[in-house]
Amino acid sequence: ERGPDTDYLNTLIDVANGLQTGLNDSKQRALEHRGSESQFDEFVSPLTPRESEILAHISDGLSNRSISEELMIGEGTVKWHIKNVYSKLGVSSRIQAAVKAHSLRLV
Questions:
Q1: Pick from 65, 91, 69, 89: which is nearest to 79 by CA?
Q2: pTM for the whole thing?
């Protein structure tokens, strides 16, 4: 016999299945757009929202001081976020970070 609990569980299952399908579709589109799975998997750890903001400012050519003033955070904090961005992108300079960000369509 079907009741409210069964309908609710079926709805949850449908939602979960839809989310999984959406994730699979998104990854497939990313793979097609970027060219290869190895390039997609190369960027393993996602950037935090703040790291993404800082990466965008780096790509715009802003200095650490300008970024800190723009975001109203300390320069040390900017440097810490940049270190994390470099690590996640597998780069060692601002130019490499900007180029990689553009190639991965992060900015």
A1: 65
A2: 0.59
